[in-house]
Prior knowledge:
63% of the residues lie in helices and 3% in strands.
Amino acid sequence: MQESHKPMDRMESALQNEEAKSMCPASFARALRISEAALAEVLGVELDTLQRRSGDPQVQERLKPFVSVLTQLLMLQSDVGLAAGHMKATPIRLLGHRTLLEVVRDGEAAKAMRYLQTLSSGQNG
């Protein structure tokens, strides 16, 4: 059971901002292989806010569901590059032909998490 948490632990520790003990948006953007400007747009914050005040509660609160979905996805696909590609580029029929990134952006992270939990329990998506 402990083994299944390793990808999540690695992702969370990789995204930690050492000084502020918060998630680092720049690291998350790199993990997804998108620009910080693209991440700011997805999060609905100004690029300047994302870069200069990454520990801001608004930035952290908006980033949290994206990190949660990616870490859940890493439970199914331990390669960060493949998981990030899937999160950004794979439209999912059960989610209205939207990608996981779009679903979370649209405020439906719980729906994305349920979908991933269904897959992890062995059902087809």
